[in-house]
Amino acid sequence: MSDPRMTSPTLSLASKALFWALGTLLPLSHAIGQEAAPAEQPAPPSPNVIVIYVDDLGAGEVGCYGQTKIQTPNIDAIAAVGMRFTQGYSGSPVCAPSRCSLMTGKHSGHAEVRDNWENGGWGENQPEGQWPLSQDEVTLAERLKARGYSTAGYGKWGLGGPGTRGAPERQGFGHFYGYLCQRKAHNYYPTHLWKDGVKAPIEGAEFFPAHQKLDAPLGSIDEYYERYGDGHERYAPALIAEDMLAWTRAKAEAGEPFFLYYASVIPHLALQVPREYVERYPAEWDTAPYLGKPSYLPHPSPRRAYAGMISFLDDQVGRLLDLIEDTGQRENTIVIFTSDNGATYTGGVDFEFFGSHDGRRGQKGSLYEGGVRIPFLASWPGHIAEGAVSDRLVSSIDLTATLLDLIGAEVPVGLDSVSFAPVLLGDDEAKERPFLYWEFRPAGAQALREGPWKLLRVGLKKGEPRLELYQMEKDPKETTNVIDKHPEIAARMVRLMDMSHEPSRGFPLPTIDGPAAEIMKRKKIDPLEGPNG
Fold first, then answer.
1. 136, 156, 273, 320: which one has the fewest Cβ atoms less than 10 Å from its Cβ?
2. Are 439 and 501 in contact (CB under 8 A)?
3. How many angstroms from the chain centroid is the CA of residue 477?
4. If DSSP codes are grouped into helix, strand and coil, which group holds residue 523?
5. Which residues is 136 bridged to in the sheet?
6. Cα–Cα distance for residue pair 126/124, rounded to 1 Å
7. Rounded Cα–Cα distance for residues 395 and 401 (Å)
8. Left (φ > 0), alpha (ψ -120 to 50) or beta: where does 152 sit?
9. SS3 41
10. 453-470, pLDDT tens digit by residue?
């Protein structure tokens, strides 16, 4: 679907820089005294775009962010040749709404999908999928496809089940292979995946529930793998990676501009990975098996399995980077690496052992930093400086505007997406992002980050709303609520919150109106005018 709001392209910052670098060369005169005609300059090739969007990877789980136990050399290599953001955020603290925000460039106060709404249960033949995107929504894939890009998605979709209006083949993807349904993705040894809208059975796979519990450990390590899967042959992330690499190679060798959306299901639970990856890590890490309580699948070596899953992911990232290098496309490829939300806290994951949240408060499902602060890396050799570090506020919501800006396309109006292309290209005077907004209906919470300040409005679901204000530069772990000291700042941010929320028929936020009234009254603050009117 083409975007009716897209008119003639504008020259992006990247294109301008490249045009300037090429210069305006003139050929030699054909004869003495004859003035040479200017040579026609070839248009610079459209850069390829790769977005690696991983599942539940915390801000502290990558080596370039300080992780020491889990080895991530290939992910770290993206930071080494590009830019690492120290204040990168997801669009939501859970999967589906975060993916919606990335794809549409809309935050959770405006987006269509604001929750992990489910279309079925856990059984083998239950309906698949989550709340589908509408046909009126314009995705990043559609925008790039309209610019002549070949588009493919791999991994986990979560924005519409089979045959729905939100299925990837109806949202701009020329090719898709992976899980359409997030529930099915809880098992890394499924009976089938989906390819271009058609069910793709996995040969030899047998169904088993993705959530099981044991009352006592099994008799041997082998028995765990026999029950819950082992090996590459039917490991869904391995199958997905092979298809992805084949597609990417074909496009790279053909010289066609391509958009690859690699939405890896790793390291989302359950704990499942080929044993060789578990055995990369010390056996003494694990003193007891995980029995599947309270949820997901048991595993004999939960810490090693979790680290092994991230290592498997890192290996696939390395294979992808090697491919674009080998095909001569590395300097013509923008690579973004980020996560859909913070690390999880259940299913055998020991987030304290790994420092998954880098000491921050909260985790997946929370609007505190641990739930929305994520790894955020970008590389484009020759355009983004090597080893650069930025403390600018950026979000996966901003990828739509940023990528369109970098490829020379017009950024549509009416989105929440803000281009950080100037930051990537080294503009030290680039404007700061005005603010970031989140809302999360299941928790009954809102949050807003503005400069050094972060305001949370929590307790909405219980009908007991309260405000919390944190000064992030001094208190990055959100330990001290300073709202009593800065009521005028809170008042301004409450106003921004109220302006950012639009009611959603599918995903209403409970008691959105007036929850800050008590503190505003107590401090004699008019939310529109400030303290004392």
1. 136
2. yes
3. 22
4. coil
5. none
6. 6
7. 11
8. beta
9. coil
10. 999 999 988 888 899 999
